[in-house]
Design goal:
137 residues, alpha+beta, 4-stranded antiparallel sheet
Length: 137
């Protein structure tokens, strides 16, 4: 995630601020196109392999999707994305990882046990600082 963030200009602090119990998400309706075109197939492939169907990473122009890394993607499609968005300064960037789905994909369910996953310790500390009644529910 940090490698993706570095490529897109998203700091660890921003990721930490956007991490919640069941998901981590980032949405920017004015995302710099120059950062988006920095993506490469090695990074995308490793991210897709790591997070599978728990991942959503989409770039749009309004309601039109110009790149969805969950679809079959290739260097050619990345190049089409770069050409199609040429001359455009900003895109809509919609990213999330469904941590509940990721947990269910990776671990067996344990009866009467809630499994939590946190990518960043500061986000976990924020969660643990809640009232006990909020943690139980």
């Amino acid at each position: 995630m940090l490698a993706l963030g570095k490529s897109l200009g998203i700091s660890q602090k921003v990721w930490e601020d956007h991490e919640e119990l069941g998901y981590i998400s980032y949405y920017d309706s004015n995302f710099n196109r120059d950062k988006a075109i920095a993506l490469n197939m090695d990074l995308i492939s490793s991210f897709k392999k790591e997070y599978g169907d728990a991942l959503k990473c989409v770039f749009r122009l309004g309601d039109f999707t110009v790149l969805d890394i969950n679809e079959d993607i290739s260097d050619e499609k990345l190049e089409e994305f770069r050409k199609y968005t040429e001359g455009i300064s900003t895109l809509l960037f919609d990213f999330s990882i469904d941590k509940t789905k990721l947990i269910s994909n990776e671990f067996d369910e344990v009866p009467n046990c809630n499994q939590f996953l946190y990518f960043f310790s500061n986000a976990l500390l924020k969660f643990l600082s809640n009232n006990l009644s909020e943690l139980v529910s």
